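Hi again,

Forgot to attach this to my earlier email, sorry! This is the prediction with molybdenum atom bound. I've pasted everything inline since the attachment limit keeps bouncing my files.
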Amino acid sequence: MKTKIAATGLLVGGLLTASLTSLMYLGNKAAGLPFSPFDLFNWIARILPGVVITFGIDLMIDSMLILGINVADTAKLAEQGMAVVTFLILGGLSGAIFFTIIHVRQIRMDQLVGLVLGALFGLPIVVISVGFGEVEGIAFINFVWLLSLFLVWGFALGWSYRKLYQGRQEPSLTEAEIPTVEKINRRQFLIVLGGATAAITVTGTGIGAVLSSVERRRQEQALADTFAHESEGPLGSPFPNANDSVVPAPGTRPEYTPLKDHYKVFIELEPAEIDGASWQLPVTGLVDNPLMLTINDLRSNYTPRNQYVTLSCISGRIGTTLISTTHWTGASLQEILADALVRENARYAVISSGDGFYETVDLDLIASDERIMLTYDWDGHPLPVDHGFPLRVWIPDRYGMKQPKWITGIEVVDEYQEGYWVERGWDEIAQVRTTSVIDNVAVNGLIEQGDQTLVPIGGIAFSGDRGISKVEIRVDNGFWQAAQLRAPLSETTWVIWRFDWPFEAGSHTFEVRCAEENGTPQIEESQDSRPSGATGIHQLEENI
Ligand SMILES: Nc1nc2c(c(=O)[nH]1)N[C@H]1C(S)=C(S)[C@@H](COP(=O)(O)O)O[C@H]1N2
Ligand SMILES: [Mo]
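Structure tokens for the complex follow:
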């Protein structure tokens, strides 16, 4: 009987939590109210030890690679799915536990007990969702909304328990008849409950999904309207290498990444949203002149710096897609810190972000490189929300993990403080590892040259800001042969290379390696991305 009651509690709890989730989702999409399953998952991810997080991410990415799923597109969606499933399981387990306790302790279920159960399940989650800060203004509305939903959840759970186990028995029945009738009544009740919760879940999720896709289409359209070009730079300017004679092999990734395709990485389940109108940047700590800068101050008080930049993620594997190129505009961090009158004893700038991310930049590095900038435009337009609106930092020759987006403050300090991913076991410096990738062996783009048939092969090579002097291709363990290099967009972008290989039918292995401007070869030994970025040779097998 006990296990049966627990199982019924699990079912009822799960059904009610599905409805609860869909109502939260609807509230989120319709009015920007909090979606607790994500908040809970974000919170868990933040407090779990770094090794557990990395293990989980690796496991997910490995599974996706095995299943042939596009990691860049799907990883966030998979995490969001896990968040919802975690929440449903928690709700089901709560139902099971509550039903069992009520039964074992023979508590008489009434409305009040139900509400108490709702509060027990909901309060910790509401606190995580709304945050520990003061409950006022918007936070108060969020608090009331979430708590009401959880109280209704508890009320419905208690009501279900009463219907199932404390229903009035028909007085006319004989003793022997009661159990069978109860069983039938229970089954009927569960069917009705299943139908009702399914209806709520489908309706809530459906309306939410429609609202969400309308909003997504609006954002994509906005990106497409402003960032539709492929053959010219920001605001229609020509690319600096427009006249280069090396034409990328067919199937090579675009040299200038369309913004909608720029890779995205962020710690939470959704990008941080910052209100641009009220946003200001405080520069505080060991400074004699603390600053409070609006985005207009940043735009007009400092000469804008412009740079074509390739950004890459340290967790990318050999042949990674977590790398993209666009045009960055911002204000030199050197100049801003000079205005803040940094004190003698200061050593680091700690940058914090709207999503709880943070990183530390050495003041010596800033002093040695005026290119380090607080960036407000990508591709000639304000940063897209996903990519750090209204402000992110650029540090040449460092992986993305050193470069906070959605900046909310800069504090100048004298003591080193580990950044978000450094605390979780990744490299402190995170200097870009030189790498080269074969994008395509263009079997469909054969070239006839004299009596030879050539197969164009193409890809990229990237070394942070250290330049690329040489890219070499090897087929079936033969000699390394030099590829042609296209002039890059800048000294801080990837280099597009091309190699026209004399066609031979059959199955072949193609490999690529490169060297930096000063001749330093890329590291050929295979190494995982953790902790310092992947090394090794990228290879493709092709049957042609
Ligand atoms: N605030 C904040 N900044 C962040 C991150 C983040 O999660 N939060 N991720 C970092 C990492 S790991 C990378 S690779 C880059 C990705 O930038 P993108 O999404 O614009 O490509 O942002 C960096 N800056
Ligand atoms: Mo990253």
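The pocket of molybdenum atom (ligand 2) is lined by residues 265, 313-315, 400-401 (CB under 6 Å). The longest helix spans residues 178-226.

That should be everything now.

G.
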